[in-house]
Write a structure and sequence with these properties.
Helix content is 40%, strand content 17%. It is of the alpha/beta class and 497 residues long. The longest helix has 21 residues, at 99-119.
C-alpha cells in the first residue's frame, strides 16, 4: 500500500469519524432507506441472518459466518464495533475489506451520501455510512448470504432496512438505557423489531420479561420461533485444553464431540444459537442453495422443519474447531498470561468472571479496567470484584473513557482501598498489572504453566496469576494493539461502546 493510498484511507476514515457517532441515536430509518434506495436496495440482493441482543452478538455473528462458509457459501459479515481497524466491520469471505477496497467502496457511493445529507434534516451518521458501505460491498462481491449485526437495539437500527430470513436474539440485559429504555422488557421490545413476517426467530436464553416481548413480536408478525433450551441448546459441555468440548441439540439433529476453542458457558450458548440460525437458514429460510421450502408453521416451531436434513456432522465439527472471537477472553500474552476481554456491562462482566473461574482454575487475577463513563460502572465493578484480587483503574483511547481517578473512587468501596491502583495511561496500567501479577506468582509458587504449555487441562491448571484487561471493546482493541502490534494501516480509529 503506497503512502498516497494510506493517506487517502486516513482521510476517508477522518470524514466518516466527523459524522454523528454511533452511540448518538436519532431514531429514524428515513436516512438509511433513502441511501439504500439510491443504491438500488443492495441489502435485498442476498439473504440475511440478522443478529441483535445485548451481549454475544459479535461472537454469534462470527460463528454463523464460519458455519456458512464451511457449507461453501460466499459470505458477507457486518459487525460492530471494531477492535483496531474500521475495516474489520465489513468482511467478505472471512476477510476484512482491504484498504484499497474500503476506499473504492466509499468513493463509489460518496455522491449518494451528499444527496441524502442535503435532503434529510439530520445528516447520515458514522454507523449509517458504514452500514450503507457494507450493503453495497456485499452486493458487489456478490455474496451468497450476509450475517448482519445490529449496532444498537433493533427497530431503529440502520441495519433494519434488511429483512432477515433468520433473526437471532442473544441474551438481553440492560445497556444503552438512555436510548433503548431502562427495563429489560423495553429493551427487548426494541430489539424484537428485527423479527420480520415469515422469518425464523432464534432466541437465546432470556429473562422472562424479555422472552415475553420477543414472543409477542413473533406472534404479531407470524414468524416461527426456535428457543434455546426448548427447540435447541447445549446438551453437554466439558473443559478441554484451549477451550471446551460440546454436544449440541440443533433444530435438525444432534451434533456431538464439537471442540470450541473459546472459553465460557456463554460462548457455548452463542455457538448453539449460531448453529440453530444456520440450520434454520439451510432448512429453507432464505437459503440460496436448495434447502427445504417448508419451515415451521407454528409460532412455537418444531425442532426439525419438514423435509430438512441435519447439517453434515464432520463439516460442523471442522467449522467449530476454527471459530474465533477476537477480544473475548483472548490470550494475547503467555508470561504471565494476559487476556483481553470486551465486557462493557454488568451482564457481560458476570459472564467473563464465570468463564475465568471455570476455565483458568484457582488463579490470582489482576484486572486492568478502562470503561466508558456512561456505563453502569458500579454494576461492572460489582461483577468483577469476586474474580479479581486487584484492579488497576485506567483509561482507553476513547474520549468517552472515564477518568482513572474517578473510576478508582468508585472501585475503592467495592474492592477496598488496598486492592485498587491507578494509572493514567493504558500502557502504564498494563505494565503495573504485569508487575503485580509477577509478584503474586512468586508468592504463590509460579506462573500458570499448565495453560502456557497445554500439558494440563485448563480446569486443573497449576495455581498462578492472570492479567485481565477489560471494560470496553475500545480497551480490548487498544490492549491488543499494544501487546501484539498491527500492520501500518491498522491504527486505532472509531469509537466503541
Amino acid at each position: 500500500m503506497s503512502n498516497g493510498d494510506r493517506a487517502e484511507l486516513r482521510e476517508i476514515e477522518r470524514q466518516i469519524l466527523l459524522r454523528r457517532p454511533e452511540h448518538s441515536i436519532d431514531p429514524s430509518l428515513d436516512r438509511i432507506r433513502e441511501l439504500t434506495g439510491l443504491l438500488g436496495d443492495p441489502q435485498r440482493s442476498y439473504p440475511v441472518i440478522h443478529i441483535t441482543g445485548t451481549n454475544g452478538k459479535t461472537s454469534t455473528a462470527r460463528m454463523a459466518q464460519t458455519l456458512l462458509r464451511a457449507r461453501g457459501l460466499r459470505t458477507g459479515l457486518f459487525t460492530s464495533p471494531h477492535l483496531v481497524s474500521m475495516r474489520e466491520r465489513i468482511s467478505v469471505d472471512g476477510e476484512p475489506l482491504s484498504a484499497e477496497r474500503f476506499v473504492e467502496v466509499y468513493r463509489e457511493i460518496e455522491p449518494y451520501f451528499k444527496l441524502v445529507d442535503d435532503n434529510q434534516p439530520v445528516r447520515l451518521s458514522f454507523f449509517e455510512v458504514l452500514a450503507g458501505m457494507a450493503f453495497a460491498a456485499f452486493a458487489d462481491a456478490p455474496v451468497d448470504a450476509a450475517v448482519i449485526e445490529v449496532g444498537m437495539g433493533g427497530t431503529w437500527d440502520a441495519t433494519n432496512v434488511a429483512d432477515g430470513a433468520v433473526a437471532v436474539i442473544t441474551p438481553v440485559s440492560i445497556d444503552h438505557a438512555e436510548y433503548l429504555g431502562n427495563t429489560v422488557a423495553a429493551i427487548a421490545a426494541d430489539k424484537a423489531g428485527i423479527i420480520k413476517p415469515g422469518a425464523v426467530a432464534v432466541i437465546g436464553r432470556q429473562p422472562v420479561d424479555a422472552a415475553t416481548e420477543l414472543l409477542r413480536r413473533v406472534a404479531d408478525v407470524g414468524a416461527s420461533v426456535a428457543r434455546e433450551g426448548i427447540e435447541f441448546g447445549v446438551l453437554s459441555r466439558e473443559l478441554a485444553v484451549g477451550g471446551q468440548r460440546l454436544a449440541i441439540r440443533g433444530l435438525l439433529g444432534e451434533y456431538h464431540d464439537l471442540f470450541l476453542p473459546l472459553f465460557g458457558a456463554h460462548q457455548a450458548a452463542n455457538a448453539a444459537c449460531a448453529l440453530a440460525a444456520v440450520e434454520a437458514f439451510s432448512g429453507g429460510a432464505g437459503s440460496p442453495d436448495g434447502g427445504s421450502d417448508e419451515l415451521p408453521e407454528r409460532t412455537a416451531g418444531p425442532r426439525a422443519p419438514r423435509g430438512a436434513a441435519a447439517l453434515d456432522a464432520d463439516m460442523v465439527a471442522e467449522a467449530f474447531a476454527t471459530m474465533t472471537s477476537p477480544g473475548r477472553l483472548e490470550i494475547v500474552r503467555r508470561s504471565p498470561v494476559v487476556l483481553v476481554d470486551s465486557a462493557h456491562n454488568p451482564a457481560g462482566m458476570a459472564a467473563t468472571a464465570a468463564a475465568l473461574a471455570e476455565s483458568f482454575g484457582p488463579v490470582e487475577v489482576i484486572a486492568v479496567l478502562a470503561v466508558s463513563a456512561d456505563k453502569d460502572v458500579t454494576g461492572i465493578l460489582d461483577e468483577l470484584e469476586p474474580a479479581a484480587a486487584a484492579v488497576v483503574a485506567a483509561r482507553n483511547s476513547s474520549p468517552r473513557s472515564m477518568d482513572p481517578e474517578a473510576l478508582a473512587d468508585l472501585a475503592r468501596p467495592v474492592f477496598g482501598p488496598d486492592r485498587v491502583h491507578v494509572a493514567d495511561r493504558l500502557d502504564d496500567a498494563i505494565e503495573l498489572a504485569v508487575g503485580l501479577a509477577d509478584e503474586a506468582a512468586a508468592a504463590i509458587g509460579g506462573p500458570l504453566t499448565g495453560l502456557m504449555t497445554g500439558e494440563e487441562d485448563l480446569g486443573s491448571a497449576a495455581a498462578g496469576t492472570v492479567v485481565l484487561i477489560t471494560g470496553s471493546v475500545i480497551t480490548a482493541g487498544d490492549a491488543r494493539l499494544l501487546l501484539t502490534g498491527a500492520g501500518p494501516d491498522e491504527g486505532r480509529t472509531g469509537l466503541a461502546p
